[in-house]
């Protein structure tokens, strides 16, 4: 039975319903036509915001503002000056830390302890890291011989691609949005952001930060709404957008790629995963359990890098399953503000339906439910929240839907394996290739296995350990392109070669 951590009687007051507006050309604006949609907290289902639902004309205005800003002061300042402004953005986010924290927690229901250590600090750090990257990266220079003996020189310069459309998910809203907005701005572009309809608040707050530190109007714009036939589609189809960057589901990425084909516009796509963890018998057992707990259950399993398939070498299989079950059952579900809470709700009742459909499918496919498998008993005040039990299965075939399809919930299937060759093949068997974790104390094996795994990121004896200078992205259907450090410059700039005949 799960221990439910919440303060008795909470929430005592009805939350204030906020108006969340679009942010266009430096101004907070309602939607043309006045449409709004409701945002409810997944903690207890209470209405927390009325969000302006951008009409096509609002998206058009945002793109036009972003285009005009390219020709304004933003287009004329030096990379170093842009870098200083981005540092100011980061410092201002940190100054308003509590405001961002409150907004992120309200939208997602995630524990304050998680958002205060991950989401908000990374939101600020993203601006600093890309300000530094742009300042410190040089380009190419080649001297060449010419038939007349005078020679020529070539040098490459980076120029912004223009207006970048940024389509964001709900799982790490500020972190993932700024992971794209920061490099885009550091490279001199302007942006129109479409946050997830589930998490409209922190992107909106960031508009105020941009104004406060003097980012010129029109550089950063936010339009709210949904995907098809709404702000997402209006933005991705808009011919004034020069490049599109997206994090979210693979099927959505494919739709966005089709939209980008009109005008042959570049895309950067970070998409779904069904990530394996491979645990060898020679691992540091406690570290492997601790790391696998985080990779399966952090953020209620709503992390694209999270583990949903665990392969454990047979000699330690039973011990591993028992230890993971023990830890999973100690997770404390509860209100975000409670320091004891270690797992929040899923993002929405709709997403919970999806996750629960896999819980049912696992049973139908013949799984042994080691732990969880349903809806936890929560106090009355939280009964309308999107709560789900952390869940562990064993006994499924590698072909089961539960083992092959992204669930994006707090769950994993654990299977035994016998040989390195066998487990590498099983880990690589899917069309996804985002991340993997390998647990072993054998250094040669760590190198061997990580070199054979088909994933954009392999963590050995760790998980979600991020150096923001490194390439980040997925192989196969998990993504197109890499972002992070200098790799982001490849996407957010056009590289132009200048050849001068001497
Ligand atoms: N980081 C990741 O890998 C994430 C994966 N997911 C997975 O995706 C599933 C669905 O979650 P959603 O939030 O609906 O993800 P999604 O991929 O549909 O949405 C992500 C963003 O794309 C926008 N969008 C959706 N359709 C669009 C379209 N046709 N054109 C332009 N923009 C569009 C959405 O409004 C949102 O801002 C989840 O159950 C989960 O499995 C969800 C969020 C993040
Ligand atoms: O650290 C990052 O930049 C990204 C982490 C997580 C995701 O991309 C995700 O969950 O979508």
TrEMBL record:
Residues annotated as catalytic: 270
Pfam families (UniProt xref): Aldedh (PF00171)
InterPro entries assigned: Ald_DH/histidinol_DH (IPR016161), Ald_DH_C (IPR016163), Ald_DH_CS_CYS (IPR016160), Ald_DH_CS_GLU (IPR029510), Ald_DH_N (IPR016162), Aldehyde_DH_dom (IPR015590), OHmuconic_semiald_DH (IPR017628)
Recorded GO MF terms: oxidoreductase activity, acting on the aldehyde or oxo group of donors, NAD or NADP as acceptor
Segments forming a coiled coil: none
Ranges for domain Aldehyde dehydrogenase: 33-498
Keywords assigned: NAD, Oxidation, Oxidoreductase, Potassium
Enzyme class (EC, first level): oxidoreductase
The enzyme's E.C. designation: 1.2.1.85
Family from the record: Belongs to the aldehyde dehydrogenase family.
Record protein name field: 2-hydroxymuconic semialdehyde dehydrogenase
Species the sequence originates in: Pseudolabrys taiwanensis
């Amino acid at each position: 039975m799960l221990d439910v951590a919440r303060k008795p009687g909470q929430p005592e007051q009805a939350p204030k319903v906020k108006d969340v507006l679009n942010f266009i050309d430096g101004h907070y604006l309602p939607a043309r036509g006045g449409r709004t949609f409701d945002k409810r907290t997944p903690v207890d289902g209470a209405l927390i915001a009325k969000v302006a639902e951008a009409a096509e004309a609002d998206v058009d205005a945002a793109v036009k503002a972003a285009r005009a800003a390219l020709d304004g002061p933003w287009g004329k300042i030096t990379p170093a000056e842009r870098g200083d402004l981005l540092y100011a953005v980061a410092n201002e986010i940190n100054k308003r830390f509590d405001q961002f924290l409150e907004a992120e927690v309200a939208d997602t229901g995630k524990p304050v302890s998680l958002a205060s250590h991950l989401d908000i600090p990374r939101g600020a750090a993203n601006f600093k890291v890309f300000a530094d990257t742009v300042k410190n990266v040089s380009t190419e220079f080649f001297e060449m011989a010419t038939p007349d003996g005078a020679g020529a020189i070539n040098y490459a310069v980076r120029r912004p691609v223009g207006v970048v459309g940024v389509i964001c998910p709900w799982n790490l809203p500020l972190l993932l949005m700024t992971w794209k907005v920061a490099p885009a701005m550091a490279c001199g572009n302007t942006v129109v952001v479409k946050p997830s309809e589930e998490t409209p608040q922190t992107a909106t707050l960031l508009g105020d930060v941009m104004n406060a530190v003097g980012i010129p109007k029109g550089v950063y714009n936010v339009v709210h709404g949904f995907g098809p036939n709404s702000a997402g589609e209006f933005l991705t189809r808009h011919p004034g957008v020069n490049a599109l960057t997206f994090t979210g589901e693979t099927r959505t990425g494919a739709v966005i790629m089709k939209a980008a084909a009109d005008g042959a516009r570049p895309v950067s796509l970070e998409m779904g995963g069904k990530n394996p963890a491979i645990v060898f018998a020679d691992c540091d057992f406690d570290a492997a359990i601790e790391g696998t707990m985080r990779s399966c259950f952090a953020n209620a399993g709503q992390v694209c890098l999270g583990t949903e398939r665990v392969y454990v070498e047979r000699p330690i299989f039973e011990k591993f399953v028992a230890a993971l079950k023990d830890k999973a059952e100690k997770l404390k579900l509860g209100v975000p503000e409670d320091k004891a809470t270690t797992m929040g709700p899923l993002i929405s009742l709709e997403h919970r339906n999806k996750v629960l459909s896999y819980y049912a499918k696992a049973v139908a496919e013949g799984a042994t439910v080691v732990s969880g498998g349903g809806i936890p008993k929560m106090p009355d005040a939280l009964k309308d929240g999107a709560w789900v039990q952390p869940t562990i299965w064993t006994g499924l075939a590698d072909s089961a839907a539960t083992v092959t399809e992204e669930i994006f919930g707090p769950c994993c299937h654990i299977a035994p394996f016998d040989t390195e060759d066998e487990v590498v093949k099983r880990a690589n068997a899917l069309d996804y290739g985002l991340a993997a974790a390998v647990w072993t104390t054998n250094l040669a094996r760590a190198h061997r296995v990580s070199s054979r795994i088909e994933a954009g990121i392999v963590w050995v004896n760790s998980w979600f350990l991020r150096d923001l200078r490194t390439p980040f992205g997925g192989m196969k259907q998990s993504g197109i392109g890499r972002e992070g450090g200098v790799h982001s410059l490849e996407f957010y700039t056009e590289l132009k070669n200048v050849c001068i005949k001497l």
